[in-house]
Amino acid sequence: MNHLPEPARVVQLPDGTHVYSDNLPAAYQGPQVVHQHIHQAPPDRTMQRIALGSGVGAGTVAAGVYFGPLLVAALTAIAANLAFLAFLALVLGWVVHTVVKSIGSPEGAAAAKNVRKARRGRG
């Protein structure tokens, strides 16, 4: 019994070069048929597989898949509400400052002047 592979033949190409028959360029091997199946890509379940592989139950994975986006949405809504309230407090503070400054009485101006003088005197 001979277990060695059959040696490849040497072939001369039309341009005069010699090559082994098992390394022929694609142009000399004849047409090749490409049979390709196109499928829609399945959803990525990598994290679910990792969680299930680490011993977490399927119910926990399903809860994480369901409640994860809900938690993100709730935290985003809370952050948006807090940002709006901070902006509202800023605007109201500016309004109060402007109104108090514009309706200030001469006594208030004199008191502010005295406070300024007192601060300068200490420094």
What topology does this entry show?
Layout: E1 10-12, E2 18-20, H1 46-53, H2 58-102, H3 106-122
Antiparallel strand pairs: 1-2
Plain-language structure description:
This protein is mainly alpha-helical and 123 residues long. Helix content is 57%, strand content 5%. It has 3 helices and 2 strands. It has a two-stranded antiparallel sheet.
Radius of gyration: 41 Å
**Elements, N to C (H/E):** EEHHH
> How much helix, percentage-wise, in residues?
55-70%
Topology, number of strands = 2
The main sheet comes to: 2 strands, antiparallel
What overall form do the CA principal axes indicate? elongated
Beta-strand content estimate: under 5%
Q: How many H/I helical runs?
A: 3
Backbone structural class: mainly alpha
- Distance between termini? 109 Å
Low-confidence stretches: none
What is the topology, as strand order, of the major beta sheet? 1-2
Mean pLDDT: 77
Describe this structure in a few short sentences.
The protein is mostly helical and 123 residues long. Helix content is 57%, strand content 5%.
Relevant terms:
single chain, 123 residues, mainly alpha, 3 helices, 2 strands, 5% strand
